[in-house]
Amino acid sequence: MSSSPAMSGILESSKELDRLKKEQEEVLGEINKMHKKLQTTPEMVEKTGDNSLLRLRSLYTRAKELSDREVTVSNTLLTQLDALLPSGPPGQPRRKIDSNDQKRKRMKSDSEISRMSSSRSQLEFYASLKGQQVAARVKEDADKDEWFIVKVTNFDRETKEFEVLDEEPGDDEEGGGQRKYNVPVSHVIPFPKHNDSSSAEDFSSGSHVLAVYPGTTALYKATVVNSRKRKADDYVLEFDDDEEDGAMPQRTVRFYHVVPLPEGHRQ
Question: How far is CA 126 from CA 184, 205, 262, in A?
């Protein structure tokens, strides 16, 4: 009977919806914690080195991704169910979930986050990164986005650009040696603090992240295999296009070398 594969597809879609809802609840819980923290101590965003606003923004970005994914899976599930159901009476078209419905359910809008922050506190935070290592996209490439570990040497408040130093350039760099680049704030992602695991975002199993490939200073897209049980635990990841003997190896990466995957990342 042909309905068996169809039912398997429905069950898989249902499982994916359950997984998405669980992750949405986890993200919502983290957002609520951040809101309470900001309401209790709003002055914290003014402190040098505080990354609360960046972490909150990354949580909302993840919430949006999960919401969009839920719409896609729900529409797939409706299509799968419709294929098994007899056609309804004329004049009653099948209804798909409208993305606008989901938008109304979203916890907060990005514009609301912006209202919570001031440009001054953001500039202070960017300036506080001087001397620290960050992830940066230092080159413009039409085909792919390349991210590396670099050191911030300066932040220009007028142009809102970082001056960064690539301390370990690749072999293909002209002349070798260290090189400096000017990059906009949108091309820089601060790392969590080595000595403060609470500053790191929690990524659940199945999440897509950007992470430092072990033994290198380059970051690549990866999928979380095992989420952390404790804040200071390492992540177990599978990197895209990383194969050994036809299998996808699982690699351990320190929590402070794992950051949110930028929207629209190309690799």
Answer: 11, 30, 18
Single pTM value for the model: 0.54
Residue 188 φ/ψ, nearest 5 degrees: -130, 135
The tokens for 75 are 């529409």
128, 103 contact by CB (below 8 A): no
Using a 10 angstrom Cβ sphere, with 0-12 exposed, 13-18 middle and 19 or more buried, the burial of residue 261 is buried
Average pLDDT over residues 99-125: 58
List pLDDT tens digits, range 242-267: 887 778 899 999 999 999 998 888 87
Give 191's DSSP letter.
Answer: P
> What is the DSSP secondary structure assignment for residue 104, as one 8-state letter?
H
Distances (CA, A) of 124 to 34, 121, 155, 198, 223: 20, 5, 10, 21, 33
Residue-wise pLDDT tens digits, 165-193: 998 865 555 556 788 999 999 999 999 88
* CA dist 150 → 11, 182, 189 (Å): 45, 11, 10
pLDDT given for residue 89 in this prediction: 47
**Residues 254, 219 contacting (CB under 8 angstroms):** no
Task: Judge whether 211 and 260 are in contact, CB under 8 Å.
Answer: no
